[in-house]
Amino acid sequence: MSNKKIKQDYLNKIKELHKHNKLYYEESSPTISDKDYDLLKIEVINLEKKYKYLRNNLSPSTTVGFKPSRNFLKSKHRVQMLSLSNAFNEEDLINFEKKIINYLNNDIELEYSVEPKIDGISASLTYINGNLKTGVSRGDGTEGELITENLKTIKDIPHAVKDKNFPKDIEIRGEVFIKKKNFKELKNNFANPRNAASGSLRQKNPEETKKIPLHFIAYTYGFIQNNIFKYQSDFLKALQKWGFQTSKYNKVIKDIKELVLLHKKFENERFELEYDIDGLVYKINDLKLQKRLGFTSNAPRWAIAHKFSANSAYSQILNIGVQVGRTGALTPVAKIKPANIGGVIVSNATLHNEDEITRKDIRVGDTVKVERAGDVIPHVIEVDIKKRKNNSKKFVFPTICPSCGSKTEKEFNNVTNKFDAVRRCTNEGYDCEKIAIEKIKHFISKEALNIDGWGKKVVEKFWDLKIIRLPQHIFSLDYNKISNLDGWGDLSVSNLKYSIEKSKTVSLEKFIYSIGIRHIGIENAKLIADYVKSTKNFLELVDKKHFDQFLNIDGIGDTQIKSIKKFFENKTNYDIFIKLSKILTIQKRAINKKGKLRDKNFMFTGKLRNLSRAEAKSLVEQNSGSIVSTVNKRLNFLVIGEKPTNKKIEQAKQLGIKILSQDEWYKLLN
Ligand code: IVH
Predict the structure, then answer these.
(1) What is the domain class of 311-427 according to CATH?
(2) Residues 211-259 pLDDT 10s
(3) Do strands 74-76 and 424-425 pair parallel, antiparallel, or not at all (unpaired)?
(4) Residue 413: Cβ within 10 Å count
(5) pLDDT in tens, 368-387
(6) Ligand 1 pocket: which residues have CB below 6 Å?
């Protein structure tokens, strides 16, 4: 290898290390295993040993100050540590409340426990018989790092709680953070207070943690034995009585208007608070309702984080490009003069879709206000018309796909009776280059096959080098060719091989999701997987063109079925499905067979009392039963609410299916 190539290889690896550090320490969402991370680090250090001229101040061996450890033991959370969905304005809050009311099917007045959203690192403390047994970081939500000794150095965390009402077994959760005034002294070592807290908490030696004044504010529980509390606000009060710190800003509020007012007040005053907060959290105060509402796959239905408005800045549009996404959507993106927005240099901003450009009449050369909120892509909010030059021209949106030249169209939406705001390339699949690349990116992504160490940039590079064209090519790579590429050493190639091998065993729902059928996200893929149970059954339905059978699945409608049909009518898509199902080991859907309603199929007709369909469905499924949506021999029980469909009752009677009232159904559930 030439010196230039060695250096490039070395710098790429360092860049990769820094990326993973950021994902791990700042975003708490690692994308590679600890083992792979260590291997990468060793690779860098070995290169430095061999070629002394490589060393520079970016090297992991010379980074001074706090070097957090990744080598803590792991510990599973008994109750997952999920994140919160976000709201940015009043409309989002109204929708949040609407969804709750619909889910509960009960127009009750909702009351919220309002708490500041502290921008720190969450931790879960397990107390058994009043003694602190373990302290664990959030990790990926399912398992975190065992950092008990480090957490014990925080004086806000009691080692023992004597109160007689303290549950015998409880996980107390809250945020570890550093106050702004203490951060000032550490400014040179960390980018922001949150990183300081995170780095300090992960010191291998707890004595190091102790040197930084960390604090802990408690706000919820995970596992709890014999929960006697009725309200979140009561629990917060109890926390205080037991010796935990809670936020002095916690409140109980009923009305959305009041929430918005309080939010405004905090937004203006937050810079004066003693610690960083990035929004307010609203939690349904009634714990019984929280329990009924439960969780979606990554966040509770009963809480929302109302974020503070993003940072924004003015800049000028240099050019407007149109990107093609996985589903063919054409997204206009503005290249702007680089601007510093809240500490991040932004040079691209999304313009969302064709309608948005027309509505705001956004043009090349315009001065625009650009906003950046958290990890959301920066976007253009408004045009400063006064600054527009006389010779500026309207932007003409392309009518053919900029990637493959196919016709584009705006679909008509039968529900809203309007044309979509988004224009799409009509090419279904791999003949459009940009769509193909995006489909492959989707295939390897975390929620799909989750191939570690294979990021979006690698897909683009391998595409340019004609190494891959279709998802199945991932499983027959020419590794010799790859190891000769810039930035690829023996170790990174063997890591890649390992993660590809690992990804070959996949659950049915992830497989269905990974092939990228439009309108089939991970939740719908789960529903389909639950229904078909195996790839073989799925393929049988496809081959016989029995797409209408998917209508039996509660939650799958015409839009999804049309999309599945269109997907499989494309020969390439069908082919990919067949090839992948031969290469991969697709696990059949594991069925929870323990519940009372196991092997039983239910159907509901008519309006249920104080219960939405969604909740009824969830209750059936929690008890291992299934929901079907047509009356046939497979149906075991038809549950009748108010104003049922008589035809369904007739059909059920003819087939000898048992008919239950809502109360009889409750009895079945206990
Ligand atoms: S409740 C199931 N309450 O925000 C929801 N979280 O995006 C459990 N956070 O990981 C979280 N202040 O680190 C809750 N008063 C508060 C919070 C809070 C900050 C953080 C927490 C969590 C993240 C969710």
Answers:
(1) mainly beta
(2) 888 999 999 999 999 999 999 999 999 999 999 999 999 999 999 999 9
(3) unpaired
(4) 12
(5) 999 887 667 899 989 999 99
(6) 82-84, 115, 117-118, 122, 138, 175, 219-220, 281, 300, 303, 305
Q: Which atom of ligand 1 is nearest to the CA of 300?
A: 2
CA–CA distances in Å: residue 478 to residues 445, 465, 466, 475: 21, 12, 11, 9
Token digits of residue 30: 């690692």
Q: Provide φ and ψ at 524, rounded to 5°.
A: -65, -35
Query: CATH for 433-587, among 3.40.120.10, 2.40.30.170, 1.10.150.20, 3.40.109.10?
Result: 1.10.150.20
556 vs 551: CA distance, rounded Å: 6
pLDDT higher than 90, residue 48: no
**257 annotated active-site:** no
Output the CA 141–ligand 1 centroid distance in Å: 12
Q: What is the pLDDT of residues 294-344, one digit of tens each?
A: 988 779 999 999 998 767 778 999 999 999 999 999 999 999 988 777 656
Strands (DSSP E) contained in 292-389 are 303-307, 311-324, 330-341, 344-350, 367-372, 379-383
Contacts of residue 223, Cβ cutoff 8 Å, sequence gap at least 6: 78, 79, 126, 169, 170, 171
Packing angle, helices 535-543 and 571-583, rounded to 10: 160
3-state secondary structure at position 286: strand
- Give the domain 3-50 fold: Helix Hairpins (1.10.287)
CATH H superfamily, domain 601-669: BRCT domain (3.40.50.10190)
The H or E element that residue 576 is part of is helix 571-583
Helices (H), 31-183: 34-50, 90-104, 148-152, 180-183
Q: SS3 for 652?
A: helix
Delimit the domains of the chain by residue range: 3-50, 74-307, 311-427, 433-587, 601-669
